[in-house]
Amino acid sequence: MIRRSAPKIVKAIPPVSSRAAVVDIRYISNSRRKFTTAESGLSNARVGRPPDTTSRSSNIPTVNSDGEKTKIIWPDGRETTFDNYFLFDHCRCSKCFHEQTKQRLKTLSEIPSDIHPMSVEVDKTGVHLTWSTSDSHKSTFPLEFLRRSAYDPPLASYRDDKESRILWNSTIAQSPPNVLYDEIMSTEKEGSTGGRAILKLLNKIHDFGFCFVENVPTTGEKTKELIEKVAPIRNTHYGGFWQFTADLSHGDLAYSNEGLPAHTDTTYFTDPAGLQIFHLLSHPSPPGKGGTTLLVDGFYTASLLSTLYPTSYSLLSRLAIPAHASGTEGTMLRPPLSQPTLRHDEKGQLIQIRWNNEDRGVLGQGWTPDEIKGWYQAARRYDELNRSEDAEYWIQLKPGTVLFIDNWRVMHGRSPFTGSRTMCGAYIGADDWLSRRTALTKKYEIRKKSILDDNWSVGW
């Protein structure tokens, strides 16, 4: 196994001059910034004429509008411009937005192409627009919504909770994240901790990419019950909840006693599994030996790659890699659209690692010779970082400890083993666990609730 000691990074990743968006996550949890609405004041503005601000509060912005755009001048001097069509499209009055289903009620073709405000008012509750429709449609936009949705230009002070992610290396062994089984399984009654414990688990998975659940009964039934308490189990060609030994019942090396390098699962799915859950039910020793679990923070090693080899980071973010699952009779999985190793969201933040050398298909279709050579160099560099002693966290799982892994971030592997070893577990979809976390946050963590009401806090 290649060993290479990678340098430790303990600060935010600096900008990198490459075609890829850089990693934008932190090594320590940052507090989430909040915006406050104005406290008092009222002003009126007519189209094409600046409002009277002689008696208005300094916390209230100035708003000007014309036939195409509406400009907001914030108290700190920054300016934000919105297309009028955009604003009318995002009206959430009862005629435009269903309060219960949280869905739009009007189509784009119903909005006049020349829509514009006839009058503008601003107060502590927001910006109030009366539109040029036959019924003088009225819209109110909370100031927080306008700050958060600003795009021309974006307000740099708005961040989301991806910043709470904590990158880690092998030293995580000193204090790995964990929660207790009994807390999670407690019933939802007054004073119970069940829902809060599930949120605690999901927050740790979000922040660290993995979490242990301790003191779990060592049966498949109780393990399945635990998983279903967190979120619905995802069915795949392996089934839903699975329990197996090293019998190659599926055409995958996971069903052998071979060692496995750090990898993410189901890269051959259009939508790879969100969470991977493992519970070692038994591995009696003697004669059983080995089978130590390996975890690697793929976001941590990607941040190193971005800093040390920005061109390599760019190639792994741009070149799509085919993947397949072809070892089980009757199964031939190959996503119709290949994806790069490193995937980013619309803001350029790293959101997913797809790294599985064993399931990698035939690459290079449509690539240039330089891209072929460059990708191999980039992939080798990333592989070396993932295999470094700095990055590898080895842990011997024991019956009673269930491991939850964010399969979009943390790679897992194992050492070879001997003897009879029984493992159980399941997959959970990314959308399902993230939805559960969001819903529980809204229910329990009042300090993290948006100051926007329910109608304005959805759809981001």
UniProtKB/TrEMBL annotation:
Give the record's keywords alphabetically. Carnitine biosynthesis, Dioxygenase, Iron, Metal-binding, Oxidoreductase
Q: Does the keyword Oxidoreductase apply?
A: yes
- EC code: 1.14.11.8
Pathway it acts in? Amine and polyamine biosynthesis; carnitine biosynthesis
Do the record's keywords include Oxidoreductase? yes
Domain called Gamma-butyrobetaine hydroxylase-like N-terminal: residue spans: 64-147
Q: Name one GO biological process term.
A: carnitine biosynthetic process
CDD domains xrefs: CAS_like
Under Gene Ontology molecular function, one entry of this record is: iron ion binding
Q: Residue limits of the TauD/TfdA-like domain? A: 201-427
- A Gene Ontology cellular-component term: mitochondrion
Q: Which cofactor does it need?
A: Fe(2+); L-ascorbate
Catalytic activity, as annotated: N(6),N(6),N(6)-trimethyl-L-lysine + 2-oxoglutarate + O2 = (3S)-3-hydroxy-N(6),N(6),N(6)-trimethyl-L-lysine + succinate + CO2
Query: Which parts of the sequence are annotated with region: Disordered?
Result: 38-68
Task: Please note every region of biased composition (Polar residues).
Answer: 52-65
Its biological purpose is as follows: Converts trimethyllysine (TML) into hydroxytrimethyllysine (HTML).
The text of the family note is: Belongs to the gamma-BBH/TMLD family.
- Record protein name field: trimethyllysine dioxygenase
Source organism per entry reads Kwoniella pini CBS 10737
Organism placement in taxonomy:
Eukaryota, Fungi, Dikarya, Basidiomycota, Agaricomycotina
